[in-house]
Specification:
The complex is a heterotrimer. Chain A is mostly helical. Chain A folds into two domains: 35 residues, no CATH class; 199 residues, MetI-like (MetI-like fold, Orthogonal Bundle). Chain A is built from 14 helices and no strands. The longest helix of chain A is centred in the N-terminal third of the chain and has 32 residues. Chain B is globular and about 70 Å long. In chain B, the strands form four sheets. In chain B, strands 2-1-3-13-6 form a five-stranded mixed β-sheet, with helices on both faces. Chain B has two domains: 170 residues, Periplasmic binding protein-like II (D-Maltodextrin-Binding Protein, domain 2, 3-Layer(aba) Sandwich); 206 residues, D-Maltodextrin-Binding Protein, domain 2 (3-Layer(aba) Sandwich), CATH 3.40.190.10. In chain B, strand 9 and strand 10 form a beta hairpin. Chain B has 19 helices and 14 strands. By secondary structure, chain C is mainly alpha-helical. Classes of the chains: A mainly alpha, B alpha+beta, C mainly alpha. At the A-B interface, helix 2, helix 6 and helix 12 of A face helix 1, helix 3, strand 2, helix 4 and helix 13 of B.
C-alpha cells in the first residue's frame, strides 16, 4: 500500500512536467490575441475561445490533408509491420551464412546522416517518376526500416528456440511459426512498433515538404504552414490544429499500450 | 534445390557482382544526370532505363513538376501569399496557368534538391543574398534583357540601393521584391518610470546609452529587472548589430566595389561602443540571458512584456504589438545617429524573385512577374506580407496607409545591408564568431578584428576570382 | 577418403542435417529479402553517391569534379571540425546514460496495473508527439535565466541557476534536458521489454526464496538485456547525429541554423548541414558525414562485441 502511494507521489509531479507541452498547446489555442500577449503567460485562458478551432479548421482544406495523412500513415504502418516482422524473424531465428554481417549492415544504414543522402534520394525518386505522389513516403516502408528490424529482432530473439522447435516437429513452416507463434507472443513489441510507426509517419514534415508539390496532396504537417507568415503567425490556429493532430496519436497510443500485457505463459518449457 | 555447394559459391559471387553493378548503376546514373544537368544523353538514358527497369516499373522521363502545357510553377515560402498570388492572378490574367508550391526562405533543402535533380520551378522567392552563389553555379538567369521589356513597372522605380544590390558582374540576378528597415521602438511607460521624458526619446547613440543606463533596473540580488537597450533583443539580432554600428560610424564592412575589407577602420570603435553600452547595464552575458526565451513570436517578445525599454525592430513587428498587446504604450522613430555622423542605426533585409535556368517556362515566369510588380497587386501583397515594397512608388503608397509605416519608410532610401557576394553566409559566420569571441569569450578585440578582417578579405578574393557567370 | 561403398549413417545424418541447414539458410534469405531489395533499390545508391561525392567539389548545383582526398585533408585542418567532435561527444556521453537510466526508471514505475496507469503512460509519451514549435517555445521560456520556471524552482531551494540558454558552458546541458523530455520513447520500449518477461520466472525465483532485489538483478535485467542493448545502441547512433534540436537553441540568421554562443552547439551533423546546404560545399559535407559514419560504426562494433558478455537471448543456443 505504501508502495502504491509512493508510486503516485512520484508519478503525479512527473506527469505534470511531461504534460506541460500538450497543456501549453491547448492553452495557447484557446486564447484571444490579447491574452496571447500577456506577460507572464497565463496557463488557463478565461474565457477559452473554442471558436478558434472552428476558424483554424476552415483556414485550409484540413479534412483533405487529414485524409492524405491518414492514407500515408496507415499504408506505411502496414508496410513497416509486415516487412519488419519478416526480416526480423530471419535475423532472429534463422541461421544463414553472413547473417551477422548483414545485420551489421542493417545497423550501418542508420549511421549515415540523412542530410547527405537527401539529395541523391530525391534524385532517385525523381528518376522513378514518384515526385508529387505518396510513393516515396510509403513504398520504402515495405522494405524494412532498420529501426524496426532491430527492435523486433531483439524481441524475437528473446523467445526460447524450443518453442519453434516444438512447432517444427509438429510440421509447422517458418511462416506459420512467425504468424502463429512468434507474433502473438510479441504483442508488446508490435504495439511499440505501431506507436512509433504511427507517430513517425503522422508527424513527418520533411518528407512531405520535399516530395509533395500540389495542395491536393498536402499532409497535415504541411497544412500547418498556412498559419505561418513571415511577420504574423496565427498562433492560436497553429496550436489548435497541432492539438487536433495530437489526438489520433493519443488514441493510437492508448489502444496500443493495452497490449503491454504481462505474462507470456509458456508452461511446460522449463522443466 | 541445393544452392550452397562450392559450385554455387561461384554463382553467389556472380549474384553479388550483379548486385554490385546494380548498385553502381543506380548510384552512378543519378550522378551522371546531375553532371549533365538534367539533359539526358542517349547513353545515360539507356543506362538509366537499364537500372530502373530492373527495379521499378515506371521510369517517367518527365522531370516532375511542370508539364509542357505552359503552367508557370512558382515557389513562395508563405502559404497564404502564394495562394493570394494564384487567386489574384486568376482574375487579372486568366490565361496564365499558375501552380504554387510551398517553398522555403530560411532553409535551402528543397531548393538544392530540385536544382540538383534538374527540375526547379520557373521562379522562386528567396532571400536577396542568394544571387551570387546561385549565379556562379549556373543556376539562374541574368534578367537584364527581360527587365527592358517590363510592362507594368520600371527598373528605375526600384530603390537605387536595391538596384545596386541586385547587380554583380554587371548583370542583374534577382528582381527585388521586398526590403526592410529597422526603427527604434521605445516604451513610454517604462521611460516615465525611469524619470525620462516619454515624448523625447533619444535620437543619438550617446543619448540612448545614457537613457538606457538610467532605465535599467536591477533587483536586490543584482539581477536585471528591466533592461534599457540590448542587441540580444530585437532585430538586427546580436552580431548583425556590428554591421549597423559600422554604418552609423560612417564606415562599412567592405568597400564599395567589394574588393577590400574595411571593417578594421571603425571595427574597434564599433565594438567598444557596444561593449560600453552593455557594461553599463550589467554586462552582455546577463543581458543575453535576460532576453533569451522571452520571444514567443513576432510581436510577443521582451518588449511587449515590458522588460525592454528600447529596441530596434523591423516594420513587420508593430502590427503584432497592436494585435497582441493593445495596451502597450510605445512609440517609433528612426534609429539613433552616432554624432557627429548622420546615418540612422538601421539594417536591411528582404527577398526577391530568382529565375532558374532549367525551368520549363521562363516566358511565363516573366508574365507572372509583370503581374506581381503591378501597383494594385503589389500594394495588396505588401499589406499582407509585412515588408517594404521594392518599387518606390508602391512603397510610398504602402507608407501612406499608416503613419508608423512612414517611420520605416523614412530610411528606406539609405539603409545598408550585408555585402552580397559569393560566400555571404560564410562571411556572416566569421562576424558572428568574432562578436561572440569578443563579448562572451572576452578575447582581445584587436586580434579578433584582424582575424575577421582577414577572413572577409579571403572571401572577397574568392568572390572576385570567379569569372563573370553567363546568366 | 572412406570406402565409398559403405553408406555411413553419420554421413547420411550429416547430409540430412546439411539439407536442413541449407533449407533454413534459403528461408533465412527469403525472409530478409524485402530488406535486401530495399537496400539495393533505395539505400545503396544514395549511400554510394554520398561516398563518391566526398571525393569531389560537388555543390549540388553543378556537376561534381574529382578532387581526390582534398576534402578529407581539409577536414583535418578545420578547427570547427574538432570543436564539433568535442561538442558531439559531450552530448553523447551526457545524454545517453541519463536517458537510459531515466527511461528505465519511468518504465519500472509504470510497469504495474494500477488505476490510471494508462493515463500516466500516455502523459510521459506526450512530449515526443507534440510538434516542435510549441514545445520549443515553452522550453525556452522554462529555461530563461531570469523568468523561467527552472531557475525559479532552483532558487526556491537555494540554488542560483545558470544561464541555461546563453552561457556557452550550459547550452549543451540544456539540450540534454530537452532530450530527457523526449524520454517517453525509450520508456515505451523498456516497458514492452519488461512486459515480455514471463511471469513464471518470477514465480520460480520466489519459490527459490529470492527477494525483490535478487529478482530484479537475476531475472529482470538479464531478460530485458536485449531491450537495454537496443536502447543503448540506438541511443548512441542517434545522439551522435544530434542536430535538429540545435535549431532551438542556436540563434539562426538567414535561416542558417545557429551553433549557439561561441559555437557551443556546433555538432557534427549541424556542421555537415551548414557546409552542405548553406555554404554549397556538398562534397566536403559528404566527407564529414562519412567520417562520422566510421566513428559510429566503430563504436557500435565495440558495443556488439561487448554485448556477447552481458546480453542474454533466450533463443541463443550454442551455435546460433
Amino acid at each position: 500500500m505504501a508502495g502504491r502511494v509512493l508510486r503516485y507521489a512520484a508519478l503525479i509531479p512527473l506527469s505534470v512536467v511531461f504534460l506541460a507541452p500538450l497543456v501549453w498547446m491547448l492553452s495557447t489555442s484557446l486564447k484571444t490575441d490579447r491574452q496571447l500577449g500577456l506577460w507572464p503567460p497565463v496557463w488557463i485562458p478565461t474565457p477559452p475561445v473554442w471558436l478558434n478551432y472552428a476558424h483554424a479548421w476552415t483556414s485550409a482544406p484540413f479534412a483533405l490533408y487529414a485524409r492524405n495523412t491518414l492514407i500515408i500513415t496507415a499504408t506505411a504502418m502496414l508496410g513497416q509491420l509486415l516487412s519488419a516482422s519478416a526480416v526480423a524473424y530471419g535475423f532472429a531465428r534463422l541461421r544463414f551464412p553472413g547473417r551477422d554481417i548483414l545485420f551489421i549492415v542493417v545497423l550501418a544504414t542508420m549511421m549515415l546522416p540523412g542530410v547527405v543522402t537527401l539529395i541523391p534520394t530525391y534524385i532517385l525518386f525523381q528518376k522513378l517518376g514518384w515526385l508529387n505522389t505518396f510513393l516515396p513516403l510509403i513504398v520504402p516502408a515495405y522494405f524494412g526500416a532498420p529501426f524496426f528490424i532491430f527492435l523486433l529482432r531483439q524481441f524475437f530473439r528473446s523467445i526460447p528456440m524450443e518453442l519453434s522447435e516444438a512447432a517444427k516437429i509438429d510440421g509447422a513452416s517458418n511462416l506459420r511459426i512467425l504468424l502463429q507463434l512468434i507474433l502473438p507472443l510479441s504483442r508488446p513489441a508490435l504495439a511499440t512498433l505501431l506507436i512509433f510507426s504511427f507517430t513517425g509517419n503522422w508527424n513527418d514534415f520533411l518528407g512531405p515538404l520535399i516530395y509533395l508539390n500540389t495542395q491536393d496532396k498536402y499532409t497535415l504537417t504541411i497544412g500547418l504552414q498556412v498559419f505561418l507568415q513571415q511577420n504574423s503567425t496565427q498562433f492560436q490556429y497553429l496550436m489548435a490544429i497541432s492539438f487536433l493532430m495530437s489526438l489520433p496519436i493519443i488514441v493510437v497510443f492508448f489502444f496500443a499500450q493495452q497490449h503491454f500485457v504481462r505474462g507470456i505463459v509458456m508452461s511446460g518449457i522449463k522443466g | 534445390m541445393s544452392r550452397f555447394t562450392t559450385r554455387d559459391l561461384a554463382s553467389r559471387r556472380r549474384l553479388l557482382t550483379l548486385a554490385g553493378k546494380l548498385v553502381a548503376v543506380t548510384a552512378v546514373v543519378p550522378l551522371l544526370q546531375a553532371c549533365s544537368g538534367g539533359q539526358t544523353t542517349s547513353s545515360s538514358a539507356a543506362a538509366s532505363s537499364l537500372a530502373s527497369g530492373a527495379v521499378s516499373a515506371s521510369v517517367a522521363s518527365s522531370t516532375g513538376v511542370a508539364k509542357a502545357t505552359g503552367t508557370v510553377v512558382f515557389w513562395n515560402p508563405t502559404q497564404k501569399l502564394g495562394d493570394m498570388i494564384v487567386q489574384e492572378a486568376a482574375k487579372a490574367k486568366p490565361d496564365l496557368k499558375l501552380q504554387f508550391v510551398l517553398g522555403e526562405y530560411d532553409s535551402n533543402t528543397k531548393t538544392m534538391a530540385v536544382l540538383a535533380a534538374g527540375n526547379p520551378p520557373d521562379l522562386s522567392y528567396l532571400g536577396r543574398w542568394q544571387g551570387p552563389d546561385l549565379a556562379v553555379r549556373n543556376a539562374i538567369f541574368a534578367m537584364d534583357d527581360k527587365i527592358k521589356l517590363a510592362g507594368s513597372w520600371k527598373w528605375s522605380d526600384v530603390w537605387p540601393r536595391l538596384q545596386k544590390d541586385s547587380v554583380q558582374w554587371g548583370k542583374t540576378w534577382v528582381i527585388p521584391y521586398s526590403t526592410d528597415t529597422r526603427a527604434f521602438f521605445y516604451n513610454k511607460t517604462l521611460m516615465q518610470k525611469a524619470g525620462l521624458d516619454p515624448d523625447k526619446p533619444p535620437t543619438t547613440w550617446q543619448d540612448m546609452v545614457a537613457q538606457a543606463a538610467k532605465a535599467t533596473t536591477k533587483d536586490s540580488s543584482g539581477k536585471i529587472n528591466i533592461i534599457g537597450y540590448t542587441p540580444t533583443f530585437g532585430n538586427p539580432p546580436t552580431y548583425l548589430t556590428f554591421y549597423s554600428m559600422l554604418w552609423v560610424l560612417g564606415s562599412d564592412l567592405v568597400n564599395d566595389d567589394h574588393t577590400k575589407v574595411t571593417l578594421q577602420d571603425k571595427g574597434a570603435e564599433a565594438m567598444t561602443a557596444v561593449k560600453g553600452l552593455m557594461d553599463q547595464q550589467g554586462g552582455y552575458e546577463q543581458a543575453a540571458a535576460f532576453t533569451k526565451g522571452l520571444t514567443m513570436g513576432t510581436g510577443i517578445d521582451a518588449f511587449s512584456a515590458g522588460k525592454v525599454v528600447f529596441g530596434m525592430n523591423s516594420e513587420g513587428v508593430f502590427p503584432n504589438y497592436d494585435k497582441y498587446s493593445p495596451d502597450l504604450q510605445y512609440g517609433i522613430i528612426p534609429g539613433p545617429v552616432y554624432t557627429p555622423n548622420t546615418e540612422h542605426l538601421n539594417y536591411d533585409g528582404g527577398g526577391g524573385w530568382y529565375y532558374f535556368k532549367k525551368a520549363k517556362n521562363p516566358d511565363g515566369a516573366w508574365q507572372l512577374t509583370d503581374f506581381l510588380m503591378g501597383k494594385d497587386f503589389y500594394t495588396n501583397y505588401a499589406d499582407q506580407s509585412g515588408g517594404i515594397p521594392a518599387l518606390q512608388t508602391v512603397a510610398q503608397a504602402w507608407g501612406a496607409k499608416d503613419k508608423r509605416r512612414e517611420q520605416f519608410l523614412a530610411t528606406a532610401a539609405t539603409v545598408h545591408w550585408i555585402p552580397i557576394v559569393v560566400g555571404t553566409l560564410d562571411m556572416l559566420n566569421f562576424i558572428s564568431t568574432m562578436w561572440d569571441d569578443i563579448l562572451i569569450g572576452k578575447k582581445p578585440m584587436d586580434q579578433e578584428l584582424k582575424t575577421a578582417a582577414d577572413a572577409v578579405q579571403g572571401i572577397l578574393d574568392k568572390n572576385n576570382a570567379y569569372p563573370p557567370p553567363q546568366g | 577418403m572412406n570406402a565409398s561403398a559403405q553408406v555411413i549413417p553419420s554421413q547420411a545424418r550429416r547430409r540430412r542435417a546439411g539439407g536442413m541447414a541449407r533449407r533454413e539458410a534459403i528461408e533465412g534469405y527469403l525472409f530478409i529479402l524485402p530488406w535486401i531489395v530495399g537496400l539495393i533499390v533505395f539505400t545503396a545508391g544514395p549511400f554510394l553517391a554520398g561516398f563518391l561525392l566526398s571525393f569531389t567539389d560537388y555543390s549540388a548545383l553543378q556537376a561534381p569534379n574529382w578532387t581526390g582526398l582534398q576534402n578529407y585533408v581539409k577536414v583535418f585542418h578545420d578547427q570547427n571540425f574538432y570543436l564539433s567532435i568535442f561538442n558531439t561527444l559531450y552530448y553523447v556521453v551526457l545524454s545517453v546514460p541519463l536517458g537510459m537510466v531515466i527511461g528505465f526508471g519511468l518504465a519500472l514505475l509504470l510497469n504495474q496495473k494500477i488505476p490510471g496507469i494508462a493515463f500516466f503512460r500516455t502523459a510521459f509519451y506526450m512530449p515526443s508527439i507534440v510538434p516542435a514549435v510549441p514545445s520549443i517555445m515553452l522550453f525556452l521560456w522554462i529555461l530563461n535565466d531570469r523568468f523561467g520556471l527552472l531557475n525559479g524552482f532552483l532558487s526556491s531551494i537555494g540554488i542560483s541557476g545558470p544561464d541555461w540558454l546563453t552561457s556557452p558552458s550550459w547550452t549543451k546541458p540544456s539540450l540534454v534536458i530537452w532530450s530527457l523530455w523526449q524520454v517517453g520513447g525509450s520508456m515505451i520500449i523498456y516497458l514492452a521489454g519488461l512486459q515480455s518477461v514471463p511471469q513464471e520466472l518470477y514465480e520460480a525465483a520466489s519459490i527459490d526464496g529470492a527477494g525483490a532485489g535478487r529478482k530484479f538483478w537475476h531475472v529482470t535485467i538479464p531478460m530485458i538485456s536485449p531491450t537495454i542493448f537496443f536502447v543503448l545502441t540506438i541511443g548512441i547512433i542517434s545522439s551522435f547525429q544530434v542536430f535538429t534540436a540545435a535549431f532551438l537553441l542556436g540563434s539562426g540568421n538567414y535561416g542558417m541554423p545557429g551553433a549557439g554562443p561561441l559555437n557551443s552547439l556546433l555538432f557534427w551533423v549541424l556542421n555537415i548541414y551548414q557546409q552542405g546546404f548553406y555554404f554549397y560545399r556538398f562534397g566536403y559535407a559528404s566527407a564529414l558525414a562519412w567520417l562520422l559514419f566510421v566513428v559510429i560504426m566503430l563504436v557500435t562494433l565495440v558495443q556488439l562485441a561487448l554485448a556477447r558478455r552481458w546480453v542474454y537471448y533466450e533463443a541463443e543456443t550454442p551455435g546460433r
